[in-house]
Amino acid sequence: MKIYGLHTCQEAIRSNRYRVNRVYLMKNKKYPEFINKFNSITYLDKKQFDELFEYPVVHQGIAMEVELYNTPVLGDLKNVDGNYTIAMLDNITDPHNLGAIIRSAAVFGIKGIIIHDRSSCKVSGVVAKTASGGLEYVSIYTVSNLSNAIRDLKKYGFWIYALCESGDKYLHELKITGKTCLIFGAEGNGIRRLQKENADFLVKIQTINKFSTLNVSNAAAVAFYEVARQMINNE
Question: Is pLDDT of 210 > 70?
Fold first, then answer.
């Protein structure tokens, strides 16, 4: 995966989660922490650097090709305990939304995010840049079937909350503690039927009646805050 942007690359190094295969620097950029750490750096002029990407991006003259040392798998969640919150994304295809959700997850202590291997966007440089370093603090689990993943999570002791406008309870009305999974759906289609049917609770975020629609990344941020608030107060 190619990531770019100063803060994103700094966090990738700091986290020690990635093997850095290549570092690119624009010739006029002086980033001592990278120059001193890596012996092999490819220096490019602006035109060459811009050609690394398929479309214009804000790269700040630095990019890296990286790969995870260990790819998280859903079975890793068997052994977690205590207050442990993850999220599941159903059909989120906009990389900016995924990146924003990861950033909010990192801020509010959400440990991981589950995505579908075909109907969700992949983790990419755009996602990493939008997450602004948050990707280094949140594990991404890729699964082939979300409904099966929900059933597995229940076996592991997780309570499943599906966020939708048709929810019969407000999220803040419930006492949320322990192992928790929040499901968010794509704008427009929302959470698909099987995911709703397999959830333990259908919940919604309280808004004013005149205008109740939230972008999915904003809805996730509000929900993450509420869960974090409850869990901190219940410790």
Answer: no
Distance from C-alpha of 210 to C-alpha of 127, rounded to nearest angstrom: 32
Pick 2-68's CATH classification: 3.30.1370, 3.30.1330, 3.30.230, 3.10.450. Answer: 3.30.1330
Whether 113 and 87 have beta carbons less than 8 Å apart is answered as: yes
90-99, 157-166, 170-179, 183-192: least confident range = 183-192
User: 60: closest CA among 125, 135, 137?
Assistant: 125
DSSP symbol at 96:
H
The CA-based angle 156-195-115, given to 5 degrees, is 75
CATH superfamily of the 74-233 domain: SPOUT methyltransferase, trefoil knot domain (3.40.1280.10)
Q: Determine the 3-state secondary structure of 1 from DSSP.
A: coil
CA separation for the pair 48, 142 (Å, rounded): 33
The verdict on pTM exceeding 0.70 is yes
The CA dihedral of 75, 79, 80, 81, to the nearest 10 degrees, is: 140
Q: Which residues lie closer than 8 Å to 81 by C-beta, 6 or more apart?
A: 179
pLDDT digits (tens, 9 = 90+) for 20-58: 999 999 998 889 989 899 988 999 999 999 999 988 899
Report helix, strand or coil for 176: coil
Strands 112-116 and 84-90, sheet pairing:
parallel
Question: Token pair 């370093």 is at which residue?
Answer: 133
Question: Distance (Å, rounded) from C-alpha 162 to C-alpha 166?
Answer: 10
